[in-house]
Amino acid sequence: MLIGLNPILSPDLLFTLATMGHGDEIAVVDANFPGDSCGQRMIRLDGLSATAVVEAILTVMPLDDFVAEPAHAMEVVGNPDTVPEAVAEFQAIIDRTADHPVAIASLERFDFYARAREAYAIVQTGERRLYGNLILTKGVVRPSDG
Question: What's a single GO MF annotation on this record (predicted)?
Answer without folding.
Answer: fucose binding
